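Support request, please re-run this one:
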Amino acid sequence: MKIGNRNIGNDSPVFIIAELSANHNGDLETAIETIKAAKRAGADCIKLQTYTPDTMTIDSQKSDFIIDGTIWEGRNLYDLYKEAYTPWEWHDKLMAVAKEEGLICFSSPFDKSAVDFLEELNTPAYKVASFEITDIPLIEYIASKGKPVIISTGIAEQEDIELALETCKKAGNDNVAVLKCTSSYPAPINEANMIMVKDFTERFGVISGLSDHTLGNTVPVVATCFGAKIIEKHFILDKSIGGPDASFSLDEKEFKEMVDAVRNAESAIGSVDYNLTEKQKKGKDFSRSLYIVEDIKKGEVITNRNVRSIRPGFGMHPKYFKDVIGKTVNKDVGKGTTLTADLLRNDK
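Re-run finished. Output below.
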């Protein structure tokens, strides 16, 4: 997969997305400064959300439209989205700022009109939010544009993921990544289930990753170790500005710590290679080998008292220990001498 100028997957570094979401708090300058801060924190990408309250839901006070069981308890859906949405007239400016900062920028559309709008802005990719994974007509429309598609799975069962991938494939788009997500805000770390990142790759044959709502950076590091190639995390300029997503977003310092931890994890994973580095080879000096540990006269027999496997590693390999026991030496040998083949009498 390639988004903008970035290769994603295989041996490429983890693609780290800073999710702006509602963290502009209704102020364009805050949104601009947040993008700049995301760059300083090490993000590769800034992601927007493209909707209006009317494209997301309807203005109704019926109980179905009142949120239950989340940090937005008791709020009306329409009112929440009215507060949280990113004005469409900002998008062109925010994408331009991202480009100036060297960040890739794309968005999550929530209806077909948002897709059309983002196409006009030449978006390089699309993100399908967790709660939209069942909106098959929307996924079909997104996939038909031929851009890379990243799908979150926060509310998805296996059949939902399979259907979404099948929909993309039928639309002629195999350029799809799937992100493990826990749709709780914030998400409990014991529900992260990061082994699913590895399973997504193996089961569905896709690039996999993480859309994370946990606090801290433990889960992104574990995801990296399980093969995540994309990590998305909500990013905020300053938590003190508040807003609907502030409580589970990382500020610049926290995001930078996460990026550093992920990069360190990538470095630690390395690759399958049984060859030793020069430094590791030098370390073999401290391994064990066979040494004469008592003075031995010419013609005397080697026993397990006068020869031992000890550090350092300049003598014969310890695997020859049983072979040399009972043999005789061909000259006087002092304690601390490395046992080598030329010290042994060639008895025939």
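The first strand starts at residue 2 and ends at 3. The domain at 278-343 is CATH 3.90.1210.10 (Type Iii Antifreeze Protein Isoform Hplc 12).
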